[in-house]
Specification:
The complex is a heterodimer of chains A (440) and B (307). Chain A is α/β, with parallel strands linked by helices and 440 residues long. Helix content of chain A is 29%, strand content 19%. Helix content of chain B is 60%, strand content 1%. The chains are: A alpha/beta (440), B mainly alpha (307).
Chain lengths: 440, 307
């Protein structure tokens, strides 16, 4: 059974939602759309307060390549454009749209197209125009990954169906419910990058998804599709780990998947791409797993971007009495949110609510040099020494011990018996090194 | 109800084991050698263990109090040091000497270096070396578990080319020696528990024991005798696996074990002492920072090994 070296085994905790079909959330009356929703340059508003917008209308865009436009998830009126709180913690310039009685109908859908009729440039353009970003959580603009420089020959497209973070089941459900769209999206991606192989990598804790997609691949007209079962281990869904597990290729330190001839996209992104190409539908909604011991009725919900967490939680029966911690994303890499008054964004794969009993109270102790962090690190770093060097601000050593290669998966921190916030030190150290480079 | 949920940095879930649970598992695993020692050497052996353990814990609390550091005796590390110290002492050692050893271990060897995680030498073994230098006669007076008479250790007998105990008594523990080193069976049970709990790993013990067996065989000695006698197994499973004073990488731990094995054989066969496990580990403790500097894991996507 294929997998990557090291990593950790974490309890999956997916039972609550893995067998619940995706259902559509109620249409929100008000949406908040932060302009920074991609891992690149923020978009700029192209509407102003008072404008009436149609559902799906583009409301923010950027001239920069590494960026993605934002569309109105609901029809209504732009009521505010100002800095508002987000799940990431810092207030971000956001557009607020409120539904109105006389709102125009949805902007006319684009022509129905089949990706096989489109050339690579048309695919890239359509994906960009739809505002699609990596829906696994990284939110890297999808069209950028579809546009490798001509000297990089891409031979394999990997569709990431690992969903290795505990609790999350959105990708699992998409694989069961939308296998056709996943393959269409994958086909379009392969065409855009000129690859002749498509590999779907799925962890073996989702045997039903493996069966469904294998059956779909068999009857599909898209050539070169394989479904590969991977030994469940965290962080298999990390691009570099996944490429290593499936193909045995190692993305060079500091490099990108395209350096080894691979492009990786998440299954959710593939579905979004298929929708954008076939009906011109922009990315105005996404599937979110709402789960955890602090929420009454866990669900997989298809939610309009911009819907507030509070509204989502309400549709899931509300919080339990002892709900203590709200996390956007999975428990390994997600962000704890202090307030429910923040919007669902393109990066929101999950709203995880933990009850008091599931929230650890961890006090950092001294490192006892047990070496568990080293044996867990999928990148081959020495987190214990990196943390020491960060604490004493020895940036030269921090660089020499390759903090830049850290993928921030949290494996080291998960197993640390001294409860040291290792990965947090590395985030700080990376920022510091970047700042110092910028100054020099 | 919308505001003020708990926030913290990711990850938001953690593995169950913490420092405290690891230390108490080590204490639990050591109950087997303690039981064997009590069985073979009588109540005074148990008394010695209890005494050094209490002394070590109290000394740590007192030291931390005096220097104004938080008192961390609940983490169990001082208890582990106290027990391990008793297990490397002769059963007849006067309690006051053992007490000085316990204080030396937690204050001199550990506390003054910065406490848990910062000491260079294994506290129990460094304290034993201090005691051996201070009271060489008391520290090498061995008694037979059968008649409680003073006798020589098997390795000393071997050095003097005299008859040594058979394999079975070496394995079960009915022979002269330090409290915890005589019963191979009890050591293996304790080590098995720690291995099963993934608290210790194989590289250091395997390299240590393997290199002693191989080298003694090459040098025309009885390898099985050398593996079963002296403090080799106790040292290999409980001291060479000490997190703080051994390397952190798998490869580094293997090298550490190899070094321990080679030095042990050199001391046993060519040195002035019959036994070399104690010094071999202390010497390799000194080399641990060097090993950690040069033996690093291979970087994912790295062109070649660095360092």
């Amino acid at each position: 059974m294929k997998t990557f070296p090291r990593g950790i085994h974490v309890g999956h905790k997916k039972e609550a939602t893995q067998s619940l079909p995706i259902c559509r959330a109620a249409l929100p009356k008000r949406v908040v759309l932060p302009l920074q929703q991609n891992l690149g340059v923020p978009a700029e508003a192209i509407v102003k307060v008072g404008d009436v917008v149609a559902e799906g209308q583009k409301i923010a865009d950027s001239a920069k390549f590494i960026s993605a436009p934002i569309h109105a998830p609901i029809a209504g009126k732009v009521t505010r454009i100002e800095k508002l709180p987000t799940a990431a913690g810092v207030p971000v310039q956001s557009i607020v749209i409120e539904a109105t009685e006389d709102a125009p109908a949805a902007s006319p859908a684009g022509d129905r197209r089949f990706w096989k009729d489109l050339d690579r440039d048309a695919i890239r353009k359509a994906v960009r125009e739809a505002g699609i970003v990596g829906l696994g959580g990284a939110t890297f603009p999808a069209h950028v990954k579809l546009s490798p420089p001509s000297e990089k020959k891409i031979d394999v497209v990997i569709i990431n169906g690992c969903e290795c973070e505990p609790y999350l089941t959105v990708d699992h459900r998409l694989m069961l419910e939308r296998p056709g769209d996943i393959l269409s999206g994958a086909g379009a991606i392969a065409r855009a990058v000129g690859a002749d192989r498509i590999i779907l990598g799925i962890e073996n804790n989702k045997p039903d998804a493996i069966r469904t997609l294998s059956a779909e691949a068999k009857k599909s007209t898209i050539p070169g599709v394989e479904v590969i079962s991977l030994k469940t281990k965290y962080p298999q869904g990390g691009e570099k780990m996944l490429i290593k597990a499936i193909l045995g290729r190692e993305v060079p330190s500091g490099g990108l998947p395209m350096d080894v001839g691979v492009v990786v996209h998440n299954v959710g992104t593939a579905v979004a791409i298929a929708e954008a190409l076939e009906s011109g539908k922009p990315l105005i909604e996404r599937v979110v797993t709402v789960t955890g011991s602090g929420v009454r009725n866990p669900k997989n919900l298809l939610i309009r971007i911009g819907t507030s967490f509070a509204e989502v939680i309400e549709q899931c029966g509300g919080l339990t009495e002892d709900a203590a911690k709200i996390i956007m994303g999975g428990p390994m890499t997600g962000t704890a949110v202090s307030s429910l008054d923040v919007p669902v964004v393109k990066a929101t794969s999950s709203i995880l609510v933990l009850a008091k009993r599931d929230v650890g109270d961890f006090a950092e102790g001294s490192c006892i040099r047990c070496g568990r962090c080293i044996r867990a690190c999928p990148v081959g770093l020495m987190p214990n020494y990196l943390a020491d060097f960060t604490k004493i601000k020895n940036w030269e050593r921090v660089e020499e011990y390759r903090v830049a290669d850290c993928i921030e998966c949290g494996c080291c921190t998960y197993g640390c018996p001294a409860r040291i916030f290792l990965v947090q030190y590395f985030k700080v150290a990376k920022r510091e090194l970047q700042l110092r480079k910028a100054v020099c | 109800m919308l505001m003020n949920f708990e926030t913290s940095v990711s990850p938001h879930v953690r593995a169950r084991d913490d420092v405290q649970s690891i230390m108490w598992w080590v204490v639990f695993s050591l109950l087997f050698p303690i039981a064997a020692a009590t069985w073979f050497f009588g109540f005074k052996a148990l008394l010695l263990v209890v005494f050094t353990t209490v002394a070590a814990v109290l000394a740590e609390a007192a030291f931390q109090r005096i220097v104004g550091k938080p008192i961390t005796i609940r983490d169990g590390s001082a208890a582990v040091t106290g027990i391990l110290l008793a297990l490397v002492l002769p059963p007849t050692l006067p309690l006051w000497m053992a007490g000085i050893g316990a204080v030396a271990a937690v204050v001199l060897v550990k506390g003054l270096f910065g406490g848990l995680g910062f000491n260079i030498f294994n506290p129990a073994l460094a304290a034993r070396a201090i005691l051996l230098a201070s009271w060489p006669v008391a520290m090498t007076t061995w008694t037979s578990p059968i008649d409680s008479l003073t006798t020589a250790s098997p390795l000393f007998l071997a050095k003097m080319h005299q008859a040594v105990p058979d394999y079975l008594s070496l394995f079960m523990g009915s022979r002269a020696g330090s409290l915890g080193e005589t019963s191979v069976l009890a050591i293996l049970i304790g080590a098995g528990i720690l291995y099963g709990k993934k608290i210790i790993d194989w590289p250091a013990p395997t390299a240590f024991i393997g290199s002693v067996a191989l080298l003694t065989a090459i040098l025309g000695q009885d390898p099985l005798f050398h593996v079963l006698s002296g403090g080799l197994l106790l040292g290999a499973f409980f001291m060479a696996t000490d997190y703080v004073t051994a390397p952190v990488t798998t490869k580094g731990r293997f090298i550490f074990g190899l070094g321990c094995g080679v030095i042990t054989v050199l001391i046993r066969l060519y040195g002035g002492f019959p036994e070399g496990v104690n010094y071999s580990i202390l010497i390799m403790n000194m080399l641990t920072p060097v090993i950690d500097t040069y033996v690093r894991p291979r970087l994912f996507g790295g062109v070649k090994k660095h360092g």
